[in-house]
Amino acid sequence: MPDRSLPPYVLDRLEIEDLLIRYCTAIDEHDWELMATVFLPDALWDSTSVGGTAGAYRETRSVQAEQLDGLVMFHQLSNIAVSIEGERATEKSYVSAQIGTPGPEGTTVLLTVGAWYHDRLVRTADGWRIAERIEEGRWTTSPPS
Hints:
Layout: H1 8-28, H2 32-35, E1 39-46, E2 54-56, H3 57-68, E3 72-85, E4 88-102, E5 108-124, E6 127-141
Parallel strand pairs: 1-6
Antiparallel strand pairs: 1-2, 3-4, 4-5, 5-6
């Protein structure tokens, strides 16, 4: 049989895309143990442009978890652009996040946010991890009043 192994760049890109999907799954499902497999402990995570916090991941993770508690979320990524240079990479992707907040009489009020993720990544013994994430909020929709 012919060798069907993939070139290293393709494997790295697939691993980075898996990392991004793991982030979306972790945040949507409020799975903070899974989230710990996404960021380096000292990673910078700045989500202030979309109403979040900024600081080292290990310092902001509990604040992020508290802010997101009780919200229903669904993140979708697209336009993923990756540049890999050895053990480091940069990534820019577009995210559309639907966020449901408790509304009157048991309803859910939906807010949609569009943003860019700007990531610096590092290859570790456990795979690619985010060393820095800057969220660039671009637009929001809010429900009718």
